[in-house]
Each structure stands twice: as structure tokens, then as C-alpha cells.
Amino acid sequence: MKLLGSTTSPFVRKVRVVLAEKKLDYSFILENVWAADTTIQQSNPLGKVPCLLMEDGAVMFDSRVIVEYLDTLTPVGKLIPALGRERAGVKCWEALADGVLDAAILIRLEKTLRPAEQQNEEWVQRQWSKVHAGLKTMSTDLGEATFCAGNHLTLADISVACTMGWLSFRFPEIDWRTDYPNLARLFDKLSERPSFKDTIPH
After folding, report:
1. Is 56 helix (H, G, I), strand (E, B) or coil?
2. Same domain membership, residue 64 and residue 110
3. Which range marks the domain in which residue 177 is found?
4. Considering the chain, what is the average pLDDT of its residues?
5. Handedness of CA 41, 45, 47, 49 (dihedral sign)
6. Structural domain contains residue 76
7. Cα–Cα distance between 118 and 108 in angstroms, integer?
């Protein structure tokens, strides 16, 4: 398999962490979707990463779709429960973490791509409200538990940690560690795993 992506995308990082935890072999191909010579749309018509190229030529995109597929390839390190409420719970954690990222990425794009006089501060604050509400909910739902869902590592933990890592990378001024010490503990614990050490955004 080949994974098209960047070292800064939190969605690509989520897929790379899952690949590592599942001990799956793949080639990582760097792709800058903002470059004039990008070829990403040859694989993903939406022009986004991550994008997974399978050995038979099939293509898969969207991190949520990709990680769900990867979890079926081997029973090693099962990350998504098979059925029912537990499965839905893990996927809800992923959706919440991804939603925080979506809002934060929109803020970054507004601040970096638009001239200051064209930026819509009211719209930016609306996105910030989603970020802070999402972080508060993740912290509340985690409580004092060791993992987000159940008693072992799942996609929920990976999704949350990739979100916190990206916020630290792109918005270091947000003091989420002080506001949400339980999220900081989870993030620090997961950051010791090789899958996270090898995928630090840069």
C-alpha cells in the first residue's frame, strides 16, 4: 500500500499511527496539496490527503474510511469494536476530535490565506467556540479514565491525541494543558508510543 500525505496533517498522522499500531507495511509518499504541481487530484478528486493507494490499484480517501478499513486487515491491535454501542462510542470520539480539527483548520486557513482586512473575525470566533466546546466535552467524557473508551488503546485515543498534537503544533498559544490536565495526561502517555514518536508533525 501507498499512503499519500504530509507530515503536518493531523488526519494523515491518524492514519500513520493506525498503520504503525496495526504493524502494516506501506510506503509514505509526501504530497503538498497546496503546491502548484500537486498531483493529488489524480488519486482523490477532492484534492485532499490522506489518500491510500491499494496494491490492486484501488484508491481510498478520507481518514475515517481509511482507518476503519485498516483495522479489518489484521486482528493485531484491534482499534475499533466490532459491533453495537461500543463501536458507535469509539466512532463518536473520532467524530468529535475530527470536528475540533475541522474548526481549527478553518481558522488557520482564514488567518493565513486571507489578507487581514478581509478576515471575518465573527466567523473565526464561531469556529473557536466549536474548538473550545469540543475540548471541554472530550475532557468531561474522559474524566479520570486511563483511555477514552474501555480499558485499552482504541481509535478514540489516537484521534484525540492527534488533535491535541496538531493544536500544540499550529496554535501553541492555546493553553489546553492547563485547562484540561486529563487530556494532557492522555496525550503525554500516548506520545511515548513509537507510533506517535515517529509521526510528530514538522
Report:
1. coil
2. no
3. 84-197
4. 97
5. negative
6. no
7. 14
Same domain, 60 and 98: no
pTM over 0.85: yes
Whether 42 and 116 share a structural domain = no
Express as a percent the part of the chain with pLDDT over 70. 100
Pairing of strands 27-30, 51-53: unpaired
Residue at 202 is within a domain: no
Question: Assign residue 173 a region: left if phi > 0, alpha if psi is -120 to 50, beta otherwise?
Answer: alpha
Q: What is the dihedral of CA 86, 81, 94, 172, to 10 degrees?
A: 110
Cα–Cα distances (Å) from 78 to 21, 30, 139, 171, in that order, read 9, 27, 24, 32
* 3-state DSSP assignment of residue 52: strand
What average pLDDT score do residues 40-64 get?
95
DSSP 26-51: -EEEE--TTSTT--GGGT-TT--S-E
Rg (CA), the chain: 17
Query: Do 124 and 37 share a structural domain?
Result: no
Question: Could you tell me if 99 and 140 lie in one domain?
Answer: yes
Q: Is residue 77 part of a domain?
A: no
**Residue from 183, 43, 184, 156 nearest 96 by CA:** 156
Of all residues in the chain, what percent carry a pLDDT higher than 90? 98
Domain boundary residue, one of 27, 48, 71: 71
